[in-house]
Amino acid sequence: MTLSLPALLARPFVFVRHGETAPNRQGIIAGSTDVPLNAEGEQQARSASVLVSQQHWSVVAVSPMQRARQTASLLLPSASHHVIDDLRERHWGQLEGQPLAALPPYEQTPPGGESWLAFQLRVLISLNRLLEQYECPLIVAHSGIFRVIRQAVSGTPYGERIGNVQPMLIQPDAQGGWQLSPLSHPTPSH
After folding, report:
1. Which of 9, 21, 68, 151 sits a CA distance of 20 to 30 A from 173?
2. HSE value, Cβ hemisphere, 13 Å, CA-based, for 165
3. 124, 25, 17, 134: which is closest to 70 by C-alpha?
4. 59-89 burial, b if ≥16 CB within 10 A, otherwise e?
5. Whole-structure pTM over 0.85, yes or no?
6. Stretch 142-166: mean pLDDT, rounded?
7. Mind telling me the catalytic residues?
8. How far is residue 138's CA from residue 56's CA, in Å, rounded to a whole number?
9. For residue 143, which phi and psi values (nearest 5 degrees)?
10. What phi and psi, each to the nearest 5 degrees, are found at residue 5?
11. DSSP states of 67-93 as a string?
12. Is the pLDDT of residue 190 over 50?
C-alpha cells in the first residue's frame, strides 16, 4: 500500500524559521536535538518583531522545540502561542550532531531517523488543520518544515535554505500555483 500525501490547502499563511542556534552557526545537524537560540538568534527575532508585530494574527502556531518557542516569544511577546507537536523538526537519527555535509538526499531515510514520507505526512496534516481553522496563520518552525512546504507548492524540497527569522508569505496565486515571497509589509486583513 502506497501512502499518498495530501495537497496543501490553497490558503495564505506566513512561515518563519527560528532564530540562529549554536548548531546552525557551526553547520551541525540539530534536527530533533532541542537546542536554544544563541545571542544572534535572539537578536534576529527581536529585529523581525518590528515587521511581524504590525499584524493581528488569527493564530501563532509554534513547534514545541525550544528554538522555535523562544523565537515566537521574542517576535510576539504579548501573543499567545499554539504549540503544535507535529511542527517539530525532522528526526535525523544517527546523523544528529554530524556536519550538514553528512545530510543524505531528503528522500532517503537516515539511519534510525524519520522517513521523508512520514515527515511530510505529519507536517502537511498539521498545516492543513491550521489552514482549515484560521485565516493567514503565522507559523514558527524549522527549515525542514519549509522544505515540506516547498515540496508541496513547487514539487521539490531542494533550493536555498530559508534564512533564520526570514518571514515568508506563502499564498496561492490566480493561476492555481503558489507564490513564496519575503514578507515586507503586513499582509492584507481578511
Report:
1. 68
2. 28
3. 17
4. bbbbbebebbbbbbbbbbeebebbbbebbbb
5. yes
6. 96
7. 18, 89
8. 10
9. -60, -35
10. -85, 140
11. HHHHHHHHHSTTS--EE-GGGSPPP-G
12. no
| β partners of residue 82 | 61
Question: Residue 128 and residue 10: Cα distance in Å, rounded?
Answer: 9
| Grid-cell match 557551526, residue found | 26
- Which of 4, 37, 137, 9 lies closest to 80 in space, CA to CA? 137
Spatial separation of the C-alpha atoms in residues 50 and 23, rounded to whole Å? 26
- The helix/strand/coil state of 116 is helix
Residue 157 has pLDDT above 70, yes or no: yes
Task: Label the pairing between strands 138-141 and 168-172.
Answer: unpaired
pLDDT digits (tens, 9 = 90+) for 58-95: 999 999 999 999 999 999 999 999 999 999 999 999 99
For residues 23 and 41, the answer to whether their CB atoms sit within 8 Å is: no
CA-wise closest residue to 155 among 3, 2, 8 = 8
Return the number of other C-beta atoms located less than 10 Å from residue 31's C-beta: 24
CB 165 within 8 A of CB 139: no
Q: CB 10: neighbour CB atoms within 10 A? A: 13
Crossing angle, helix 39-52 and helix 66-75, to 10 degrees? 40
Tell me the mean pLDDT in the region 30-35. Answer: 97
Cell triple for 66: 525550544
